[in-house]
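Standup notes
- HV: blocked on the assembly model, inputs below
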Amino acid sequence: EDQVTQSPEALRLQEGESSSLNCSYTVSGLRGLFWYRQDPGKGPEFLFTLYSAGEEKEKERLKATLTKKESFLHITAPKPEDSATYLCAVQAKRNVAGANNLFFGTGTRLTVIP
Amino acid sequence: DSGVTQTPKHLITATGQRVTLRCSPRSGDLSVYWYQQSLDQGLQFLIQYYNGEERAKGNILERFSAQQFPDLHSELNLSSLELGDSALYFCASSVGSGTYGYTFGSGTRLTVV
């Protein structure tokens, strides 16, 4: 059974204080690992997809990395506007063609204090 | 605006009632996914349709059903509603396998009283 565990559940950072969020996963054949950002009361917003161990992707102050068991979302010099819940999700290889659903973790709620 | 349209934005109804949530996917996307998000359980996958056909099913209750129409819009029907069904219901769409991510709508907040 697919499993995604995110830690920490909540993180408070001072503006400019870099840190990392962790996503540990168990899946029977990883097709892709996704990171999303979600603001309160809104739909998740796509950030990155990673496909293989060793892959890295960057977007502004965010960098996502992937190993065979976990992914990290590194936040460099965060700003208050980076405050949000960050969700990790896995997409598993399925036998049914076109079955592409994502399995989500419960997220890390990030607060960046000015 | 993500391009995925969900209506209504808010819905308040009584226990035992039936409601229909609607989703119009982003132009060109063939897959539609429904997710339920409650405070204590995060985003739970319900069901996926691809070009009108069901492709994957998650922990969707028997009281819930969905379909995707020829114009690719989708509806999620929730019946015999219980207090525990109160949640945010999100629709997402993708073209094919979602290589470039899934685009989520802004959700329907369902409150069962």
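- HV (later): unblocked. The CA atoms of residues 7 and 30 of chain B lie 19 Å apart. Chain B has no helices and eleven strands.
- Next: hand off to the docking folks.
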